[in-house]
């Protein structure tokens, strides 16, 4: 059984969008994935996003995606919400991935806005509802117009929230005003998908985070959200400010690149990246060390 969820926090409060470890020759490292998942849950994550952007999902096969979900479930599925990324820019393919994730045992689905083909809002509505209709799993939408090219408008989010299984949204839109309106009008459980805005989004009604920096600072993220929800805004602000170098450093280039570099520095499973992603250059790793140290991360 996955951890208990509530309508307010259907996937918990602190989730990390986990990288996909690969072996030196580029194959899926399932043992490494299990060890990394265990480390992240031990650190305080309520859940893990598998096969998301940070998991290099564009370069993993459908079979690899299922294998990865299965391996992580075996390792930590009794202690954490395992949410499978199933979004593509092809509705039929997304439905197939959603059904495969359900068969494998995933606890929920993450569905990103279809990218590149730039559908209109009605197309987004039909896409998300079709995938949500395909399984009995709870769904977290993923709104990231910087990657997808199209935002999910507030009116569309309100319509989608009427679906019984669409329960949450991962917000990487970077617009606190639009987030405020969407949270107020939709009632969706709101998760920050932009680490620099973790605290600001809590202030307008978010319930938690889907984080990249959670790979290295999960305890601090948990302390931040717990301080805020207990009413200690000053402490939450202090933690936020302490983490600013980490937030900045982990996104000087693509987050998956810096995350795998940071994990390697800590001796944790990561491995190489699949093309077209590339490893951080030596000077980027040196800057990352400086950024992480400034944020209190032990290497």
From TrEMBL:
<dbReference type="InterPro" id="IPR013785">
    <property type="entry name" value="Aldolase_TIM"/>
</dbReference>
<dbReference type="Pfam" id="PF00701">
    <property type="entry name" value="DHDPS"/>
</dbReference>
<feature type="active site" description="Proton donor/acceptor">
    <location>
        <position position="142"/>
    </location>
</feature>
<feature type="binding site">
    <location>
        <position position="210"/>
    </location>
    <ligand>
        <name>pyruvate</name>
    </ligand>
</feature>
<keyword id="KW-0963">Cytoplasm</keyword>
<keyword id="KW-0704">Schiff base</keyword>
<keyword id="KW-0456">Lyase</keyword>
<feature type="active site" description="Schiff-base intermediate with substrate">
    <location>
        <position position="170"/>
    </location>
</feature>
<keyword id="KW-0220">Diaminopimelate biosynthesis</keyword>
<dbReference type="InterPro" id="IPR002220">
    <property type="entry name" value="DapA-like"/>
</dbReference>
<comment type="subunit">
    <text>Homotetramer; dimer of dimers.</text>
</comment>
<dbReference type="InterPro" id="IPR005263">
    <property type="entry name" value="DapA"/>
</dbReference>
<keyword id="KW-0028">Amino-acid biosynthesis</keyword>
<dbReference type="InterPro" id="IPR020625">
    <property type="entry name" value="Schiff_base-form_aldolases_AS"/>
</dbReference>
<dbReference type="GO" id="GO:0008840">
    <property type="term" value="F:4-hydroxy-tetrahydrodipicolinate synthase activity"/>
</dbReference>
<feature type="binding site">
    <location>
        <position position="54"/>
    </location>
    <ligand>
        <name>pyruvate</name>
    </ligand>
</feature>
<feature type="site" description="Part of a proton relay during catalysis">
    <location>
        <position position="53"/>
    </location>
</feature>
<protein>
    <recommendedName>
        <fullName>4-hydroxy-tetrahydrodipicolinate synthase</fullName>
        <ecNumber>4.3.3.7</ecNumber>
    </recommendedName>
</protein>
<comment type="function">
    <text>Catalyzes the condensation of (S)-aspartate-beta-semialdehyde [(S)-ASA] and pyruvate to 4-hydroxy-tetrahydrodipicolinate (HTPA).</text>
</comment>
<dbReference type="InterPro" id="IPR020624">
    <property type="entry name" value="Schiff_base-form_aldolases_CS"/>
</dbReference>
<keyword id="KW-0457">Lysine biosynthesis</keyword>
<feature type="site" description="Part of a proton relay during catalysis">
    <location>
        <position position="116"/>
    </location>
</feature>
<comment type="pathway">
    <text>Amino-acid biosynthesis; L-lysine biosynthesis via DAP pathway; (S)-tetrahydrodipicolinate from L-aspartate: step 3/4.</text>
</comment>
<comment type="similarity">
    <text>Belongs to the DapA family.</text>
</comment>
């Amino acid at each position: 059984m996955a951890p208990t969820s509530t309508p307010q926090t259907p996937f918990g409060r602190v989730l990390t969008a986990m990288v996909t470890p690969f072996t030196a020759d580029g194959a899926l490292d399932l043992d490494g994935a299990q060890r990394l998942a265990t480390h992240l849950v031990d650190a305080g994550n309520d859940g893990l996003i598998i096969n998301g952007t940070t998991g290099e999902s564009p370069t993993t096969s459908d079979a690899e995606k299922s294998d990865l979900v299965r391996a992580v479930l075996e390792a930590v599925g009794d202690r954490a919400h395992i949410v499978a990324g199933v979004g593509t820019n092809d509705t039929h393919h997304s439905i197939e991935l959603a059904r495969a994730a359900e068969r494998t045992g995933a606890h929920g689905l993450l569905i990103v806005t279809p990218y590149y083909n730039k559908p209109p809002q009605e197309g987004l509505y039909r896409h998300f509802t079709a995938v949500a209709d395909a399984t009995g799993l709870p769904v977290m939408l993923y709104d990231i117009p910087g990657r997808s090219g199209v935002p999910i408008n507030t009116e569309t989010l309100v319509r989608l929230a009427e679906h019984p299984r669409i329960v949450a949204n991962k917000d990487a839109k970077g617009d606190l005003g639009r987030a405020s309106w969407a949270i107020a009008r939709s009632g969706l459980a709101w998760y920050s998908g932009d680490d620099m805005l973790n605290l600001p989004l809590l202030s307008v009604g978010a319930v938690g985070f889907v984080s990249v920096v959670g790979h290295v600072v999960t305890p601090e993220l948990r302390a931040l959200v717990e301080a805020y929800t207990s009413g200690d805004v000053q402490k939450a602000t202090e933690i936020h400010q302490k983490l600013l170098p980490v937030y900045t450093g982990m996104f000087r280039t693509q987050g998956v690149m810096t995350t795998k570099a940071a994990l390697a520095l800590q001796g944790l499973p990561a491995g190489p990246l699949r093309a077209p992603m590339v490893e951080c250059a030596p000077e980027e790793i040196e800057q990352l060390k400086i950024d992480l140290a400034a944020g209190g991360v032990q290497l």
